[in-house]
């Protein structure tokens, strides 16, 4: 069988890692695929850069679109990044030129995935994107193929290693009796290379949301809908939140959650308190993990490195190998024409328990007033933690509620916020009993 | 595209579950595969049995071999069980008749997998066996496909739910201050249906070993070699072992381990003490989990239900879907001709730390004698736990060692066993610092 000819656009960490992998495993991949995998073309911004690896006889293209049209390329790997611009131009050109597309670009798929899937079918090519979600964990393959005998009911997980690293550090500090606030850990993560200089995409939840949008489409057979995701990041999580979580038997994690509910499909990314014994609670550091719930198989869990040169190039290579073996799978698990628009659940209708943190002036009647605000919205209190302070001092109070509708809870908190004895805007963290 | 025609041999829990799944998901599977999946033939021992599901218009075959030859069947699902006899006859007949084969039969593949893979290639058909290993977890797919860009260095896991259930119960009992011995938990597991009336295959480690033999072949590209596996079960694990493990910061798990070492490929199934913080330590009850170590991706972990109607039929369905989509993958990851016989490491050459439990007469000099036996074999003690008893009483002593060769350790224990003050044969559990 003839070699599979690969064009790589973008020679940064991932592209470079891929070149190294394809070189190191050349013989192994021939055995596994029954044909060689050759890098025949590359494109990057700076031709002269010293990258520490050899691109051999590959044709250099200054313009990624020219790489997409290179007659000597069967598969285009888009490793440029960015939801639009050159990455999008490359992807469209590749598909139109009849090349299979492998990408690590979650932002691009979250924005244009549904349209690109249609285009790919028109041109009879594959779009594969294992590296876009949870790095080296083959979760897309598990859901599109391994679990394809199931109807999915929910998928959730830790999809951003930066946030998980920060929350793990804050947690470990509390256990060690130290107080480490978000800003300090972020600065440290930036020094270690675990967070970007411009960290918003990660810490404000957008990166996890891009990945969730794609997983939702795979799980529920609906077009990617990034706009429908409720997104909150971890900037406002403080050491005291972590302390209370530990005291209550929880851990704070940034989860990305998609699930079927009576009011539609929920898609949300936000910090959660998860039971300390839940498998997802124990996923530490930069690791990612995904829990998939499905009707026949039940719950399966996948954990591994969510980023990094080796993990990401492993995922891209897996996609290339599938193409080399002639595998064909619809982009989001079913043909684009079968993707069904489904109602998305409004966040106000979400139902779950909550943890509320208040800072109060410790005076007679204040707890009764707060209880009344909650009762008026039919929010029922499950537990209350109040630390002793000197009378007249500000005192932190933490409440957990039974299941309540988010809209009702928000209205109750607005009323609480109006009380004179409530000194700071109430903080809320959702509890996920998963 | 025409429907994929499936013949199912064996209508027990798995076969019945598969019929239910294919019926319940008919429309979904058509969307996902681009064609219908039809059950066109079935075979089971008792035609008259009331199975609680409808086989529709499927042709009934009293003889599974006749089902294999049915011209109206594209894929044969072997769900009979047993390493030989009718299951083997069916598999061979199916392959020779040019039908793809899907099986849940680990014993059969552990014994005949290498030969069947050659036969399947000669006849141009697939052998798929996701359900044979770790139930609903798509681990075979992850290793043969998703991680196929990697060279594997190790794979290990909890592959037998019965053993994990028993060890979990014994562990929880200790935590609750009760003593629960192996025999009592086994009896309870049998009542609950978590253990067979004839439990040896599970509790003596053979089931896990069957699965490990297959995973080793996939990981290292060598022919399945069940004979090369060192197998110990969990019968001899007592509550006191679990107690000491907890005290030392470990948990006792039955692990199946395959890894590359300087002396060859290790394949072993035995109880281990694993650090309580290791991900694998927290896999409780009947769940299975597998940790895969590979050069580019690093470590990924897969957890889920290892058995049961839904989980197993999900795995079988995943294989059928792959076939319906036209996917082709070599049985053990590379073509049979590329499977390379590799040296297997002798157990005596295994290197690792150990935990040793002794019952001693508490008299002067006994510890010194034991220390001398260990020193003579260059086994170095890391820690010693001795519980206070009345002088002259029998006293349990637990030692952990630094890394030692298993052969040397065994020789040391033989010498220890000869000492007059050593009242019982020394017990040893390997420590896995994974």
Oligomer: homodimer
* Continuous helix count of chain A: 14
Shape of chain A: elongated
Distance between the termini of chain A: 48 Å
Mean pLDDT of chain A: 95
Unreliable sequence segments of chain A? none
What portion of residues of chain A belong to β-strands?
15-25%
Largest interface: A-B, 59 and 59 residues
Report on the biggest sheet of chain A: 10 strands, mixed
Q: Which range best describes the helical content of chain A: under 10%, 10-25%, 25-40%, 40-55%, 55-70% or over 70%? A: 25-40%
**Structural class computed from helices and strand pairing of chain A:** alpha/beta
Number of strands of chain A: 18
Q: Output the radius of gyration of chain A.
A: 24 Å
Features:
homodimer, six-stranded parallel β-sheet, ten-stranded mixed β-sheet, 434 residues, alpha/beta, 24% strand
List the helices and strands and how they pair.
The structure is a homodimer of 434-residue chains.
Chain A lengths: L3 E6 L3 H12 L1 H8 L3 E7 L15 E3 L2 H6 L5 E4 L6 H12 L3 E4 L2 H17 L4 E2 L10 H8 L5 E7 L2 H15 L6 H11 L7 H4 L2 H15 L9 E2 L7 H9 L2 E12 L2 E12 L11 E8 L3 E8 L3 H16 L26 E2 L1 E8 L4 H11 L4 E6 L7 E8 L2 E2 H13 L8 E5 L3
Helix pairs in contact in A: 1-12, 4-5, 5-10, 7-8, 7-11, 13-14
Structure, explained:
Two copies of one chain form a homodimer. With 434 residues, chain A is of the alpha/beta class. Chain A contains 14 helices and 18 strands. The mean pLDDT of chain A is 95. In chain A, strands 7, 8, 9, 10, 11, 12, 14, 15, 16 and 18 form a ten-stranded mixed sheet that branches. Chain A has a six-stranded parallel sheet with strand order 3-2-1-4-5-6, sandwiched between helices. Chain A has helices at residues 13-24, 26-33, 64-69, 85-96, 106-122, 139-146, 161-175, 182-192, 200-203, 206-220, 239-247, 309-324, 366-376, 406-418; strands spanning 4-9, 37-43, 59-61, 75-78, 100-103, 127-128, 152-158, 230-231, 250-261, 264-275, 287-294, 298-305, 351-352, 354-361, 381-386, 394-401, 404-405, 427-431. In chain A, helix 13 (366-376) packs antiparallel against helix 14. Chains A and B meet through helix 1, helix 2, helix 6, strand 12 and helix 12 of A and helix 1, helix 2, helix 6, strand 12 and helix 12 of B. Strand 12 of chain A pairs antiparallel with strand 12 (298-305) of chain B.
């Amino acid at each position: 069988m003839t070699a599979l000819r690969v064009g790589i656009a973008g020679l940064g960490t991932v592209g470079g890692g891929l070149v190294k992998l394809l070189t190191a495993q050349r013989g192994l991949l021939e055995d596994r695929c029954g044909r060689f995998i050759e890098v025949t073309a590359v494109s990057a911004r700076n031709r002269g850069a010293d990258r520490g690896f050899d691109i051999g006889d590959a044709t250099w293209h200054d313009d990624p679109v020219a790489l997409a049209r290179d007659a000597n390329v069967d598969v285009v790997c888009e490793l440029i990044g960015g939801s639009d611009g050159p990455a999008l131009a490359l992807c469209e050109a590749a598909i139109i030129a009849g090349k299979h597309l492998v990408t690590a670009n979650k932002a691009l798929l979250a924005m244009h995935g549904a349209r690109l899937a249609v285009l790919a079918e028109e041109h009879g090519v594959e779009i594969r994107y294992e590296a876009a979600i949870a790095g080296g964990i083959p979760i897309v393959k598990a859901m599109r193929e391994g679990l394809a005998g199931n109807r999915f009911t929910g998928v959730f997980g830790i999809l951003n290693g930066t946030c998980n690293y920060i929350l793990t550090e804050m947690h470990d500090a509390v256990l060690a009796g130290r107080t480490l606030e978000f800003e300090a850990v972020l600065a440290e993560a930036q020094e270690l290379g675990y967070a970007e200089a411009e960290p918003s995409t990660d810490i404000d939840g957008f990166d996890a949301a891009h990945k969730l949008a794609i997983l939702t489409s795979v799980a529920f057979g609906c077009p990617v809908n990034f706009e429908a995701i409720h997104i909150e990041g971890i900037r406002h999580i403080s050491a005291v939140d972590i302390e209370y979580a530990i005291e209550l038997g929880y851990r704070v994690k940034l989860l990305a959650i998609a699930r079927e509910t009576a009011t539609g499909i929920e898609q949300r990314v936000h910090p959660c308190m998860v039971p300390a014994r839940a498998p997802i609670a124990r996923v530490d550091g930069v690791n990612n993990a995904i829990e998939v719930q499905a009707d026949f198989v039940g719950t399966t869990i996948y954990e591994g490195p969510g980023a990094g040169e080796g993990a990401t190039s492993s995922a891209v290579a897996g996609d290339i190998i599938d193409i080399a073996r002639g595998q064909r799978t619809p982009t989001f698990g079913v043909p684009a024409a079968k993707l069904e628009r489904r109602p998305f659940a409004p966040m106000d209708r979400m139902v779950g328990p909550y943890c509320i943190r208040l800072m109060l002036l410790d005076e007679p009647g204040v707890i009764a007033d707060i209880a009344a605000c909650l009762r008026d919205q039919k929010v029922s209190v499950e537990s209350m933690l109040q630390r002793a302070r000197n009378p007249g001092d500000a005192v932190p109070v933490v409440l957990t509620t039974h299941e309540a509708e988010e809209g009702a809870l928000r209205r109750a908190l607005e009323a609480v916020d109006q009380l004179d004895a409530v000194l700071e805007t109430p903080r809320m963290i959702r509890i996920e009993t998963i």
